UniProtKB/TrEMBL annotation:
Catalytic activity: (sulfur carrier)-H + L-cysteine = (sulfur carrier)-SH + L-alanine
Record-stated family: Belongs to the class-V pyridoxal-phosphate-dependent aminotransferase family. NifS/IscS subfamily.
Keyword Glycoprotein: no
Cofactor field: pyridoxal 5'-phosphate
Domain Aminotransferase class V: 5-364
Keywords: Iron, Iron-sulfur, Metal-binding, Pyridoxal phosphate, Transferase
Task performed by this protein: Catalyzes the removal of elemental sulfur atoms from cysteine to produce alanine. Seems to participate in the biosynthesis of the nitrogenase metalloclusters by providing the inorganic sulfur required for the Fe-S core formation.
Record protein name field: Cysteine desulfurase
Keyword Iron: yes
GO molecular function, a single term: metal ion binding
One family name in Pfam for this protein: Aminotran_5
Length: 379
């Protein structure tokens, strides 16, 4: 039986060999990274090496990298009303784009009545005019905009948004979880005040995330209190093996980024062309700049749940969009925000590629789609 084809890289990625090796070595260490003896210092060295690797990759400073249990926790830590803007005043409200991850849409620690949404265009990018109007129409705001959408792959105009936000006395948080390792990302170049990342999206282990803040940012309030870990910004003994794996994943992903980007984009384009040729399929956000690895598509009458099962039975792992809904296939809130009706939002299927995706994998996926298009849509 042929091996299965994995095309759900935006949900999670395979563990890189370098990461596995780094984690195995870390598991042999017995020291607590907060201990001052030799065993503790060795564990601390692994944590600090990973901290330095992530900081260097995204343009930050090691002392401004805070490790967390996941990207969701990192987002929750970032969305803090205590943050102080350029004038020294607190962020009195939160603005988020309508296509954010669920952990951002939840509003972090802001009260529900202090959270507003920024409209997006039919292409799935933020409406800068709406952002500017909302910034002008209220007190200083923390604004959260993802660098790249997890469902459509659309890249957001983060740098342009940052200029508007800072001119209005606000701060910008960027969820860069899908961007890291797939497209160049530097917090200074885009103007982010805070940015979040997740290890398992770049070939690292599940259960490790990070928040990177800019130098001089004040007012960040810990979610977990107790110990003095992470410079008293996140209590709890660090996950040494997971963090070591995160560092190894960052180094590996950045080393092969230029080569991977071009090769994966070529495969993605061939996949899209094949998808469009069957059953009148359309690809979302194709008219804007996107991640090189992501395809979100639908076809008239397609039901995502049936399609995902159909692909799975053909040996191809795909998804209906975000993988953060407890395994449920639900209508895409991203497509709803883009103005598509519920019937369309219920029929979107996402295929996402990665560094080990091969041309034969694309062939298998297109063969599966031909079968599904001839059965599901013409029955």
């Amino acid at each position: 039986m042929p091996s299965r084809v994995y095309l759900d890289w935006n949900a999670t990625t395979p563990l890189r060999p370098e990461v596995r090796a780094a984690m195995l070595a870390a598991w042999d260490l017995i020291g607590n990274p907060s201990s001052v003896h030799a065993e503790g210092r060795e564990a601390r060295r692994l944590v600090e090496d990973a901290r330095a690797a992530l900081a260097a990759a995204v343009g930050g400073l090691p002392r401004n990298v805070i490790f967390t249990s996941a990207g969701t926790e990192a987002n929750g830590l970032a969305l803090s009303p205590g943050l102080r803007g350029p004038s020294g005043g607190p962020m009195e409200r939160l603005l988020v784009s309508a296509v954010e991850h669920a952990s951002v849409l939840a509003g972090g620690r802001f009260a529900a009545d202090r959270v507003g949404q920024i409209r997006v265009t039919r292409s799935g990018v933020i409406d800068l005019g709406d952002l500017e109007a909302q910034l002008r129409d209220g007190p200083p705001a923390l604004v959260s905009i993802m660098a790249a959408n997890n469902e459509t792959g659309a890249l957001q105009p983060v740098a342009e948004a940052a200029r508007l936000i800072h001119a209005a006395g606000g701060l910008l948080h960027v969820d860069a979880i899908q961007a890291l390792g797939k497209t160049p990302f530097n917090i200074n170049e885009v103007g982010a005040d805070l940015a979040t990342f997740s290890a398992h999206k770049i070939g690292g282990p599940k259960g490790v995330g990070a928040l990177v803040v800019t130098e001089g940012l004040t007012g960040l309030e810990p979610v977990l209190r107790g110990g003095g870990q992470e410079l008293s910004r996140r209590a709890g003994t660090e996950n040494v093996a997971g963090i070591a794996g995160f560092g190894a994943a960052v180094k590996a992903a950045l080393q092969t980024l230029p080569e991977d980007t071009g090769r994966i984009a070529t495969l993605r384009n061939r996949l899209e062309n094949g998808i469009r040729s069957i059953a009148g399929a359309t690809v979302f956000s194709e008219e804007v700049e996107r991640l090189p690895n992501t395809v979100l598509f639908t076809a008239p009458g397609l039901k995502a749940e049936t399609a995902v099962i159909g692909f799975d039975l053909e040996g191809v792992a795909v998804s209906s969009g975000s993988a953060c809904s407890s395994g449920k296939v639900q209508p895409s809130h991203v497509l709803s925000a883009m103005g598509y009706d519920p019937a369309v939002a219920q029929g979107a299927v996402r295929l996402s590629l990665g560094w080990s995706t091969e041309p034969e994998d694309i062939n298998r996926a297109l063969e599966a789609w031909r079968k599904l298009g001839n059965t599901l849509l013409r029955a």
